[in-house]
Amino acid sequence: FTELPSTALGWFFQWAFCSAAATIVSGGVAERVNFHGYIIYSIAMTIFIYPVIVAWTWGYGWLSAGEDNINDAGFMDFAGSGIVHMTGGVGALVGAICAGPRSGRFDNPEDFQPH
């Protein structure tokens, strides 16, 4: 990757984080939505939601540190864990609320033999 321009490296960096955030959503909606619904949700998240959150934080937007924020307290996220996990977690929460409970999953509890 040493001969790639910095824009290509930046794109790959953001692609990795964006795909991780979209993958977190799959854990929250597992067994509740079909594959096509998850693909549509992932496309919406990667095109509209994640880029806006990144622009607000890493793109020196209104949430970034160093701007004139409330009480001069901005958001600092050096490695991306906050952006990725909060975006993915909120997306999973919204998806789980919209999808509703797992109907029929726990209607007939049965005893089973452990391994």
Automatic annotation (TrEMBL):
The keyword Ligase does not apply. InterPro entries: Ammonium/urea_transptr (IPR029020), NH4_transpt_AmtB-like_dom (IPR024041). It is a multi-pass membrane protein. One of its GO terms (molecular function) is ammonium channel activity. Gene3D superfamilies: Ammonium transporter AmtB like domains. It is found in: Membrane. Keywords: Ammonia transport, Membrane, Transmembrane, Transmembrane helix, Transport. One of its GO terms (cellular component) is plasma membrane. Residues 9-115 form the Ammonium transporter AmtB-like domain. The chain crosses the membrane at residues 12-31, 38-58, 78-99. SUPFAM superfamilies: Ammonium transporter. Its main location: membrane. One of its GO terms (biological process) is ammonium homeostasis. Belongs to the ammonia transporter channel (TC 1.A.11.2) family. This is Ammonium transporter AmtB-like domain-containing protein. It comes from Strombidinopsis acuminata.
